[in-house]
Specification:
422 residues, alpha+beta, Alpha-D-Glucose-1,6-Bisphosphate, Chain A, domain 4, 5-stranded antiparallel sheet, 3-stranded antiparallel sheet, 42% helix
């Protein structure tokens, strides 16, 4: 609020008038370290009505409480990787509320210089807390970074429409109509090589990103709801509304994760794919890889699909004869030792198992599914796809050929422009 000079039209005398305006004023920052809250800062404006901002981090509060109680933990820069007593950590987080935050402010206002003097406070002029912005986060710690990255990329791919009004109202449990203000959208932002998913609702948003931590093998998938206006959820701005607002934020995080769980099968195949394509060691026995592009391996997988129908399984000789037919060789050219080598590879990779007290084998459920999948991928995707994209492919251009042609043209144009710029 500012004053401006006005003049009475009848008397011609001037008088001051209070108006709402903007002003560039100095601000004073106090960066402090509290015994209960750790690092925080207070920001005071030097102009009436002397607005102030208090910024604190609930994770730092929890860390301080654990240190005081002697409970060990491994911390992220804004969260936790692990804790010796997770139930106590949960209780500490839940007990943080308006009373603790207000106590922090009063404790430091008694020590720091600020615009309101003792006479002002005695007259009833004092700071009162309201919620300007609040963030509520859920970090899921993953012990396998590669699987977590793949999972997060799939989540982004499958949830590009999560920002639509009909989806947003499910996440925030608020009805969205044509009169609801704000832009409803999903944004995928890339900072370096780490993407983040953003979902907007009025003045609030949910952000998801993959949190890679230096020097720590574990990583976190972070989901956080940021509320910039409590009235988006029919709540007041006074600090006393913090518990209700916390329920809104945490429930939004949980609903989003539930939607993603239903839309994406989290059974990751990356480990299985690497297990087949890399040498394995089972009970001290090492075996070579079953590479998915090896023609001999593909022939073996074709045979596993056939032999799955045999009630009594198959033996070394059965496999040798059929493998020779598929690879265009004579059975005499494939030695029993070579066949034993292949059987051992299939067995240690879990594709087949020996029938007890016999020299016969049967195909496992995993072996059947893997064999069915990879043989069909090779027959219906790899082989015809490679034939289409190669320069000496079919004489009639296909959609795939035209797409690769456009990519090559764009790359060539980019290279030419780069040379011209240099």
């Amino acid at each position: 609020m500012r004053t401006e000079k006005r003049r009475n039209a009848e008397t011609g005398k001037s008088y001051p008038w209070i108006v709402r305006s903007t002003a560039m004023v100095n601000h004073y920052y106090w960066y402090c370290l509290d015994r209960d809250f750790g690092p925080f800062f207070l920001k005071f404006a030097s102009y009436f009505p002397y607005n102030a901002k208090l910024c604190l981090n609930g994770h730092e509060y929890a860390k301080r409480q654990l240190l005081r109680e002697g409970i060990g933990f491994k911390a992220l820069d804004n969260g936790f990787v692990s804790c010796e007593n997770p139930e106590r950590l949960r209780a500490i987080c839940e007990e943080l509320g308006p009373a603790q935050v207000d106590g922090l402010l009063r404790r430091w206002l008694a020590r720091l210089p600020h615009p309101f003097t003792a006479q002002d406070r005695e007259a009833g002029y004092r700071y009162d807390l309201s919620i300007l912005q609040a963030e509520f986060s859920l970090t899921q710690i993953l012990d396998r970074p590669l699987h977590g990255r793949i999972l997060f990329e799939e989540i982004i791919r499958e949830n590009l429409d999560i920002g639509r009004p009909d989806m947003v109202q499910l996440i925030f449990n608020r009805r969205v109509t044509k009169r609801t203000p704000g832009r409803f959208r999903t944004r995928v932002l890339t900072d370096g090589v780490i993407p983040s998913l953003h979902v907007d609702y009025k003045n609030s948003r949910i952000k998801q990103y993959f949190k890679q931590v230096p020097d720590v093998p574990e990583v976190g998938a972070r989901t956080e709801t940021t509320v910039n206006n409590t009235r988006d959820f029919s709540l007041g701005k006074r600090l006393g509304n913090l518990p209700a607002l916390r329920q809104v934020g945490f429930q939004a995080n949980r609903r989003l994760l539930e939607v993603q769980r239903l839309s994406h099968d989290c059974a990751m195949g990356e480990e299985t794919l690497h297990r087949l394509n890399r040498p394995a060691e089972v009970n001290g026995q090492r075996t070579p890889a079953l590479r998915t592009t090896d023609l001999r391996v593909l022939a073996l997988w074709h045979l596993l699909v056939w032999f799955r129908l045999l009630p009594c399984g198959f033996a070394n000789r059965d496999l040798r004869e059929q493998l020779a037919a598929l690879t265009g060789q004579s059975p005499t050219m494939i030695t029993p030792g070579r066949m034993t080598y292949d059987l051992r590879r299939l067995r240690l990779h879990g594709m087949i198992e020996r029938i007890p007290k016999t020299h016969r084998y049967r195909v496992t459920d995993f072996g059947l599914r893997a064999a069915l999948y990879f043989t069909r991928v090779h027959a219906r995707l790899y082989r015809p796809g490679v034939a289409q994209i190669l320069p000496n492919g079919p004489p009639l251009p296909t959609d795939l050929q035209r797409a690769f042609g456009r990519i090559e043209n764009e790359i060539d144009q980019h290279v030419r422009r780069a040379k011209m710029a240099s």
